[in-house]
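User: Here's a chain of 233 residues. Predict its fold as tokens.
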Amino acid sequence: MKGYLKSEELSIKVTEFTRTMEVLFLSSREAFYDFFTKGISISLKNMINKLSRELIDEQIKCTVKGFNLNRMRKAFNLRISFLKYFNIKGGTEMADKIHEIMERLSTKLPSTQTVVCESDEEFYFTAGQLAYYIMQQSKSHNKNFGIFEPFLIVKNPTLLKRKLAEMFEIYKHAISIQNIKFKNAFGMVMGYEPEVKMTDHMKDLFLAGLLSNNIFYTKNENKEEVAENGKNE
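Assistant: Prediction complete.
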């Protein structure tokens, strides 16, 4: 069709535009063409939820150089914007939900009292924050978002907690015992039993936790020493 890129014209680069991305592009190009040139949205609306999630997953899996937060945040924000535009569940309320959870965590994580997870949404968001912080402790010079793939493929929250525990066991030497926020968050997640598996809305919240400003890199009132967010990126 006129105006489309031909398959052979697509430049496949493992670190930027993979074969899977090509397949997703080719399967959705007609829907995007209809939407942007004809104002017909029905085809894109029907596929945008699954399409945008698969594109983000693929980008995370195949990033082989550094933690490119800006690129990943833009991709995630674009997904949420599409969901909001098409009035698909999870789009309109996501930004407010993220803000609400972050406000709640910033209040209770520095506490010296016992804190608990209050909802499945808080569980998955906090798990994303923990996953990023723990994996950031790696001293590897080849750190990349691909290391988060094991977290993305799990559906069972029990397996998600197990994966966090395994990664903590590897990198615990790099995490200060004085880091109260981390200890509270880790205890919250490990002690909570979600009712909902990590699918759809909950996976969005996990990704939001992974990609949002990391709460463990903010300074506490007690001047706990932590690195600035992104220092090791």
